[in-house]
Design a protein that fits this description.
This protein has about 375 residues and is of the alpha+beta class. Helix content is about 50%, strand content about 15%. Strand 2 and strand 3 form a beta hairpin. It is globular, with a radius of gyration of 21 Å. The protein binds coenzyme a persulfide. Coenzyme a persulfide binds next to helix 8 and helix 13.
Length: about 375
């Protein structure tokens, strides 16, 4: 649902211009320094980019999902690490509170997340609980007006920058599966909370992940999201449904960027006396990429519109994430192939993008988890 087409056009044009004029020229610096430059962080705050999806009553822009994926397709045309910095506040780092938080929790945290004063992170994954999120072992034991949290979370995006974490922890040790899990807001400066060393990754330099360790962290009962125990796994799954659609949009945009770069190269690079774009085997790679990007766009816009109408789009979100991220991987591979030797050296952005986009097929649910969700939902609908 687009509330006002003209307003959205202005926002998308502003962001597209910012991506072109400020972010793309800083991609190399981002990669080399493994950090988003400070002036860019401030500009993103000034542009309101941290709070685009946070409801207007809590000082965000309140984008609908159709608007959000449209904007994500503009931001996604540069290094994914730029998006990652604002990605958690607009997604998994704030959504638990937006979807299931109490009014008090929303009023206290969302305006700070909207301005970027506070960075939010989502702490679900653990050393022994990745795809099998329901088996997580972090515990939250009630002690009077507090819960005491113990455990370790792994690969937590933006953990080094985060001011708060949405933490999924087991409140009922007797229930082994999802029903024993609750979601909490934990401030980064809580005594007993510490961070592991920042992970050295294959790509997405500038986007930081690390372990988050909880040792007898006492947090007030009022930080239990929604004030209800036992529904934290469902909160996490609802967060991921929306997050998966967002990642699908970002992956589609990255594919568009790589295809644009590959087309530019194919038009300039001459072999056998003519631009390589005139060769049919190159054209086949360009055409297949264009076709797949178009398909991903159509899927994502359809799912987004349906979610804005209130439909349950768990299956469709998984379809979008699976198709768009796998497609993005194929486009990255073809783009390297079109650039040939130049695609393998770091003089061109494609070498970096090839590594960066690999993560899309893994985080917020691997491709195999998306297959599992889609098939399970199909089977369940028959029973
Ligand atoms: N929305 C709301 N509720 C949901 C849901 C969704 N999308 N998906 C599942 N649930 C509910 C189920 O309805 C079930 O509730 P009831 O017990 O009341 O029926 C409960 O949650 C447990 O669901 P299920 O039995 O399907 O859980 P499983 O443990 O079998 O796990 C998968 C399901 C594998 C799909 C889940 O663990 C998952 O998505 N894993 C990947 C995690 C992930 O993406 N990690 C990435 C890191 S976070 S960036």
């Amino acid at each position: 649902m687009i509330r006002d087409q003209e307003t959205l056009n202005v926002l998308v044009e502003t962001i597209s211009r910012y991506v072109k004029e400020r972010l793309i020229p800083n991609e190399e610096i981002l990669e080399l320094n493994d950090a988003v430059p400070e002036d860019i962080v401030q500009e993103m705050k000034d542009l309101g980019m941290f709070g685009m999806t946070i409801p207007e009553e809590y000082d965000g822009l309140g984008l609908t999902i159709e608007e959000e994926v449209t904007v994500a397709m503009a931001i996604g045309k540069t290094s994914p690490a730029f998006r990652s910095l604002i990605g958690t506040n607009n997604g998994i780092g704030s959504l638990g509170i937006v979807i299931d938080g109490t009014e008090e929790q929303k009023r206290y945290y969302l305006p700070k997340l909207a301005t970027g004063e506070l960075i939010g992170a989502f702490a679900l994954t653990e050393p022994d609980a990745g795809s099998d999120a329901g088996s997580l072992r972090t515990t939250a034991k009630r002690d009077g007006d507090h819960y005491i949290i113990n455990g370790t979370k792994r690969f937590i995006t933006n953990a080094p920058e985060a001011g708060i974490f949405t933490v999924m922890a087991r409140t009922d040790p007797l229930i082994k599966g999802a029903a024993g899990i609750s979601a909490f807001i934990v401030a980064a400066d809580t005594p007993g909370l510490s961070l592991g060393k920042v992970d050295r990754k294959m790509g997405q330099k500038g986007a930081h992940t690390c372990d988050v360790i909880f040792e007898n962290c006492r947090i007030p009962v009022s930080n239990l999201i929604g004030g209800r125990e036992g529904v934290g796994f469902k909160t996490a799954m609802k967060v991921l449904d929306k997050g998966r659609l967002h990642i699908a949009a970002v992956a589609t945009a990255a594919a568009e960027r790589m295809l644009e770069d590959a087309l530019n190269y194919a038009l300039e690079r001459k072999q056998f006396g003519q631009p390589i774009a005139s060769f049919q085997l190159i054209q086949a790679m360009l055409a297949d990429s264009k076709m797949e990007i178009y398909a991903a766009r159509c899927m994502i816009m359809d799912a987004a519109r349906r979610r804005d109408l209130g439909e349950d789009i768990g299956t469709e979100a998984s379809c979008c994430k699976l198709f768009a991220t796998e497609m993005c991987g194929r486009v990255a591979d073809r783009a390297v192939q079109i650039l040939g030797g130049s695609g393998y050296v770091s003089d061109y952005p494609i070498e970096r993008f090839y590594r960066d986009v690999r993560l899309f097929r893994i985080y917020e649910g691997t491709s195999q988890i998306q297959q599992l969700v889609i098939a399970r939902n199909m089977i369940r609908s028959r029973s």
